[in-house]
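Ticket closed. Logging final result for Glycolipid transfer protein domain-containing protein.
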Amino acid sequence: MAEGPELSFFDLRTVHDYFDKALMENDDIELTAYLDAYNELYKFFQLMGSVFSFVSSDLKQKIDVLTELRNKDDQNYTTIKSMIEYERKNKLLEKPNFVNGARTLLRLHRGLDFIREFLRQLGELTDGDKTSSCCQDAYNKTLAKHHPWVIRKAAIVAMYTMPTREALFKKVCGENIQRNIDVLPKMLEVTADVFDRTDNIYETYQMHALP
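Final structure:
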């Protein structure tokens, strides 16, 4: 467990900067910067506590898998395209007992759809508004499609306990609430670019339906 201030508050500027760095000129996504941004997003779920347990532990596992693949083979796991092409060429997508990067990143990609939609709706609330409804709506529009009924039910119930927007921002951002609110539109813009580009890559390789 991280100590003291190192379990720092969530910072949307950090997410923005890493996702911006991940956008390559050749319509590809650089994997290390993508994972760095996701580690900051994971911090958001950690700080929120058990209400997001339905997604946080799964995200951490996926981040760790991709980080390990990247560390072991930085040549083939440099970008999303190089990863997919390497795994397709070497038939790793069909290999039993191999946790491939393409499938793992697809799960993170779906999670990012939920995160950006939730943060988008959060930005439209006033300080006194409860966040539960917009979180449920964002979940139903995105991740719920990929979860079994038991998880969907538990997630929706957990979201009823969510605080007002002001309390939520204070919990995850500490004293830097206004800084995060100010950068939210730019963060959402670059996150949309990352999401759309990743989506296009998976569409090009016809890999959206990976089991």
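Residues 12-199 form a domain with the Glycolipid transfer protein, GLTP fold (CATH 1.10.3520.10). No further action required.
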